[in-house]
What does this fold into?
Amino acid sequence: MKKIPKILLRKVILFTLFIFFINSCINNSENSDKTKMEKNKISINKENFGKYDGKNVYLYTLTNSNGLIAKITNYGAIVTSLIVPDKQGNFDDIVLGYDNLEDYIKDSPYFGAIVGRYGNRIAKGKFILDDKEYTLAVNNGNNHLHGGIKGFDKVVWDAEEIDNKEGVGLKLKYISKDGEEGYPGNLEVTVTYTLTNNNELKISYEAVTDKPTPVNITHHSYFNLAGAGKEDILNHELMIDADKYTVVDKELIPTAELRDVKDTPMDFTSPESIGSRIAAVEGGYDHNYVLNNNGKFAKVVEVIEPQSGRLMEVYTSEPGIQFYSGNFLDGSNIGKNGKKYNKYYGFCLETQHFPDSPNQPSFPSTILKPGEKYGYTTVYKFLL
Ligand code: GLA
It folds into this structure.
């Protein structure tokens, strides 16, 4: 047998080593891409968002196992972005908001915020509790709205990151002092947001007090399932499982009447587009629906945007939901990526007790007493 020349043998070995090296490089870069992808999934990232009231404000980016993203800041416990896929798998931000803290501080119609101590209106900012009259801050015409001049949407919350089997989240705490905005009692509030791996934004509300006080905390995201700032929400098809709503006067204060929705433009018991009858509703939709859930945690809303195919369900045990069609948006709020938010560009579904309950003996009570625990959960679930 002929001997292989040494030079050729060396070339073969070098060539094999070279091929081996190239291969391992390709594998490595594939692996690092994989780790990047895995890192993109199920994670919490914290970055500075500025300062307010001498406190640090952060922006937390939560990503679930399917790549859905919720961005939340501890200023106002605000959800600044919610990025979910459409039927083609394209991800888009479906809540209205701003790019930076300064804009939220300057002027925000409660974009994405936690609203309290009392969500919605209390007539004339007055109520009587245990024979004593309380006077609250008046910030909406003659009335008190969404907790007053500096409500829970305008304070810095303490935040703690959560990472468990269910998903990733943020536990936000705030102590509302006795007398704040006129309310009695020190109220310790905890709001927990979880972005679950089941594509839900779950919000759990808890509170305890040291004096009797009205409490009605809610969430104020403006949704647009077509994508924030693209177009109005009038083509969304909405179902609200409610046979009645609370009738309001010109100042949006309930008259105490619960009226049937049947045969009126208020009826969303079967899916209807938001725009089909809005012209017949003075001022647009801004009403509290009396839910059919009998105080049990249940699906109360389904809303679909036909073009993108995005579908959102809302679950709660609260007796009411404020359906607000973004009537006061007027293009003056320039939102994320310079987009203008015109009238009807977002809708809110604020799970709650009924507006003005402290002055309405026939409505379910909103008074929390020392020793009691305030608590409920609302879920916004995204499906295709
Ligand atoms: C709620 C109220 C509305 C309006 C918005 C915020 O939905 O019911 O009337 O105040 O908040 O602009």
Summary: The mean pLDDT is 92.
